[in-house]
Amino acid sequence: MVSPVRGVVVVTDRGQAARPLADVVAAAVAGGARQVLLREKDLPRAHRLDLAYALRALLRPVGGLLIAGGQDVLEGEALHLSAGAVAPLGRPHVLGRSCHSEAELARLGGADYATVSPVWPTGTKPGYGPALGLSELRRLCRIADRPVLALGGVTTAEQVAACREAGAAGVAVLGAVMRADDPAEATARLCAAWDGVCDGSGRRGATVIA
User: Fold this and answer.
1) Residues 83, 119 contacting (CB under 8 angstroms)
2) What predicted TM-score, i.e. pTM, was given to this entire model?
3) Would you say residue 115 lies in a domain?
4) How many domains does the chain have?
5) How far is CA 40 from CA 69, 117, 203, in A?
6) pLDDT digit string, tens, across residues 48-75
């Protein structure tokens, strides 16, 4: 199955953002981000909808995609469900689901892609895990019948390259962009690693962790 959600996906968290969320996303888009997963599930729907409009406006000129996390597509075309959530009536154009194990991957239903997490320990959700590690990510990517995105603790160019080498269709990154002093530079570095352009030092040729 081919999913439109591939490569580097930026996940939002305004609580960790070093500056206003829209400014961080604008910088990430300038750095090469073309897919953004909007979380912020604690916001009232009206505020979250306004934020979705604003982020779509940033992504539209570059042909990007905003994915709404939760069960409300926020008047868009892409939705990402939690592991046990029931898909809403009226399937969106793009549908993803969070998974944490082989059993959850087997229950994907009509989802176009899955995130698998946590690959590494994550500062976003301390104690969340246990971390799967690269070997398990590689195994899950091999047995999955949908594209798999690696999520959780992905912060460096080396990790991005390793996830791609393991068979992931993409990586979802949060803290590495949200907390960055320069989100554009941070995003560009991660995108370059995914594309095999450079490693974490900026040298050409991605470094792969075995």
Assistant:
1) no
2) 0.91
3) yes
4) 1
5) 8, 19, 35
6) 999 999 999 999 999 999 999 999 999 9
